Amino acid sequence: xLFSPVSRFRPVRMLAAPYPLTAWLAGWFLLLHTGxxxxxxxxxxxxxxxxxxxxxxxxxxxxxxxxxxxxxxLPVLMLLESALGTRKSAGRTRRGLVLAVAGVSLFALGxxxxxxxxxxDEFGVRFNFIAVDYLVYTHxxxxxxxxxFPVGTLLSTLAVITLALVWQxxxxxxxxxxxxxxxxxRVSLWLASLVMAIGLSSVWSMDARQGANEYQLELSANxxxxxxxxxxxxEIDYFEFYATRPREVNAPLAELPRIVTATAPKNxxxxxxxxxxxxxxxxxxxxxNITPQLDRLATQGLFLSNLRAxxxxxxxxxxxxxxxxxxxxxxxxxWRDNNQxxxxxxxxLADHGYVNRFMYGGYARFDNMATYFGGNHYQPLxxxxxxxxxxxxxxxxxxxxxxxxxxxxxxxxxxxASGKPFLMQLMTTSNHTPFTFPDGRIDLKxxxxxxxxxxxxxxxxxxxxxxxxxxxxxxxxxxVADHCASSKGRTSLPPxxxxxxxxxxxxxxxxxxxxxxxASQIDLVPTVLDLLGLPERSRFMGRSVLHAYPDAGRxxxxxxxxxxxxxxxxxxILSPGRKxxxxxxxxxxxxxxxxxxxxxxxxxxxxxxxxxxxxxRDGLLRHLVS
Length: 626
Known about the structure:
By secondary structure, the protein is α/β, with parallel strands linked by helices. The protein is built from 20 helices and 14 strands. Helix 2 runs antiparallel to helix 3 and helix 13 packs across helix 18.
């Protein structure tokens, strides 16, 4: 045998005699996971601010994580081998079965490591709650992978390598068909592995990660362990794990003067654009001119140039623009049970006679959109209901944005003809991998910048076509991203990765103006109701950007566990274990250093998130009929 990872790791050699197949797989597990850590470390060396000392710490901690993860799965591997092995003479069938199991298992290990590389390339983290959510929607995820990468070539190459290794090491592997150790010693070793796994599961946690920044912390973990952790921690009780204070019922804020005066529009159109970071716009400093339509609209409407998304998933953006609450730990409300008949923008407008629609360019079963919007006074429509003429180009995620907009225009024509006011919320898909779009629309080819420019082209075309409609003068358009294109960063909550554009456009009702104050995605719902002159805006936790602020501005940003409260010069982060971080920011809102100064920001952060958790837990988000 030319090479076997078994000889490289002492813990693995202990399994060699009683469990040779398990020992072989364990060796490859450690080798492959160490290899992917080295690859990711090299790829992220500068961004992670690695040094020789920090690299050594990451590798040592990573090996510990790999060994712990291996210890947790060992009982399963040993049971599998016990089902194959016997001390009696092995026939051709049993020997073939051992080789087949070895090949399939090694292929699965290689596939997992390959998937980790792709996941890291897009998100800059190990498998996390996003990966857990994606496991539910295998059709879209597998389709996205097939359309984005040469899957056939990659899998074929992996299969050839796997077969070659299994054949080259067949002598060792076939010893699993007739193990030398006695049944008693094998059973004793399996029981010991079970006790060890139970012990490791109770004493080891993600807190064991080591590193000076978020990249290093992620590199020091194990992807499979991170996936299991995310799967078991996607529902988190705020009151059990986060800092709280004695709750006081907040008195209504004094009415502050309106800084934008306008007559009330009648209809509302919310365009939620996929993955559109502010950094793509010329207004955000991008020199590539890939958002000429949005940059033009920003000068013709109310441009909120310092708005922050609440999260880094589409469901968080849709939650913020419908429910207007700070993001809570774990799953978005859109994913949770008992999320029907909530106090959403659609519910309030339904009380005032509005026809409310939610239109998605993909299939609205994804991320539970159809159930959530359908149960909250919206009529959901998705690509499966689009006429064939509006489905001529699409990819795994959805139809081209122009088809979504064209069908939306037809629906709005019908709603306007009925004499009822309407709310139309759209969710686009074109600015998402695999970044494909119809030919002949823009001067760029497939890719991230091309998808951004196509999405910009399509929304500009949509607004231009809407101008010819009789209902246009009575309508306000809110164009906002669902989240940024990337959540990668050296810190767990990099403020720059939540900066999204938002434009309120209605020439007859809103004078052009740029608002540079810090604001949150949850402020858009109260702003819409303020524009319409409806008093129900006070029920929501956001605040209207049409009014003066009682402070210097604030925003809520979060991952699935980290809850951030952002001000112009501070970032407070609440974490499980009732941990509180208070960071000083520079004038570009970049994290500079921790500050021991308590300030009012900590108390405001706790009060806001605790209030949101209280409303959800106690049913106070239920819709109140006006």
